[in-house]
# Entry
Amino acid sequence: MPELPEVEVTRQALAPWLEGREVRAVQVRERRFRWPVPPGLARQLVGRRVQALGRRGKYLLWRFDHGTLISHLGMSGSWRVHPGAASGAAPPPGLHDHVDVAVDGALLRLTDPRRFGALLWHPVGAGAVERHALLAHLGIEPFDACFDGDWLYRATRGRVASIKQVLLAGDVVVGVGNIYASESLYRAGIHPRRPARRVGRARCALLAAAIRAVLAEAIEVGGSTLRDFRSAAGEEGYFMIEANVYGRAGQPCHRCGNPIRKLVQGQRATYLCVRCQR
DNA sequence: AGCTGGTCCTGATGGC
DNA sequence: TGCCATCAGGACCAGC
# Structure
């Protein structure tokens, strides 16, 4: 479920259940994620209090005074809250419910069928979590006040790869996944195959604004263009954003009526209007 | 069989 | 020509 909006919506949903609460129990039923869930995680967390729930890119950061729990949802991960449930009172875990974290007043359950996600522990002794190998080379946050056309312009000079690939790489700006990359480029009128360094100043400004707008709107409606997205409370039928191009191959462009085309970049689908995007 | 939300790692490339 | 940042592809896994 995860592009930045889904992760941020998850963060907002979990934060009230976590911040200031003490971890009562941790149960790991499956530790084979992208990297193994560290043994002894329960020992690290039980009896400790979550100070704050943060986010960096698509990583959720559970901050404790003695370290940070890093959670990434990969392609198919999600956290679900079971309010009021002590570990015994929660529904029985399903096939892909791999981790339970019980806190005062709630059980948080991590589901991830494909197990591309991660759950890692970063102790304070290892330094600031921002310097963790997975976080150190991430690009700027799209909602950082410093992220604008000038930033994007400077960061993309010398990048031969296509603008879409550079957005997905996440070392320029974080949080733009496959769906929102297509949507942002459509909104900015930029062809996804255009070499990043061939996007001029003015169009970098359009693109930066488009990225922020697309992500902000997605967060506002609580989620996602994704078919199987559920809120952390488990509600189904969550609002779906109407995509302008993603998944609309053959259907008319909302702006000019030309059929939307699909192409493949780096083994991922890209959707665009060849008339509106140059 | 071929798609699908992400991104780390490896070995290769290409721009200064 | 050589160097090193950047690039492309493979890998991980389950469900539809």
